[in-house]
Amino acid sequence: MNIDERVLGIDGAKGGWAVATCKNGKAFVQFFKKIEDVWYFYRDKLELVLIDIPIGLPHSEKRYRSCDEEARKFLGYPRSSSIFSPPCREVFEARDYKEALAINKKILGKGLSKQAWNIIPKIKEVDEFIIKNPEAVKFLKESQPEVAFKGLKGEVAKFSKRDEEGYKERMEFLRILFRKFDCEIVEDKIKGLRRDDIVDALILLATGILAIKKEGNICSFPTNFKEKDLLGLPMEIFFVKFSRLNEIFIE
Length: 251
Known about the structure:
This is DUF429 domain-containing protein. 38% of the residues lie in helices and 16% in strands. By secondary structure, it is α/β, with parallel strands linked by helices. Helix 7 runs parallel beside helix 8 (195-213).
């Protein structure tokens, strides 16, 4: 199966987005400033896009997302700390963290982490993009790199992705996996992209490739039911459990 530019793995990066894809036997990561730019550049070929950003958002009638709770249980401590609670949509209009905190407490009855506050511009950007381009919902799925990695490998990462050991742990596994796609990872460091941005985008790309090749069990949280937000957007986290994992390590 030709996978060239049919799948994207996207992770937020400073000043934009880290976007991983495959072409001509190479898996690589590019930098885009806007998610809309990614869409217009790749949309003619796209089959699946996995992005590490909350899409469906909690609201007054559903104050938490079941997908986040299930993902935390799936990962266990300490990787569960990578799953944060996203804000309600009303927080987009806040002028500062103090105001955002007050709005979130009023609507959802709980506070807002600094981690969530720091990526609100990206959450808002994707939310507005989907509203403007509703056809993108067919291709665009929320995923999460730590959940996706456990789905691929069958176990959580032992080290933090920001540590040298964590980077090596993830990349060694990904190199083997991509070789099975007849694809070599090009690790060029792009200005503005950190190594953890690059590895997260590649994890999501690998997950998406397995999904379109139907070589794993496609899963999502919540497991046994569907949830949508007030705009009808799914509140779910997509991943793949790789059923043939042992085969890729048999030389």
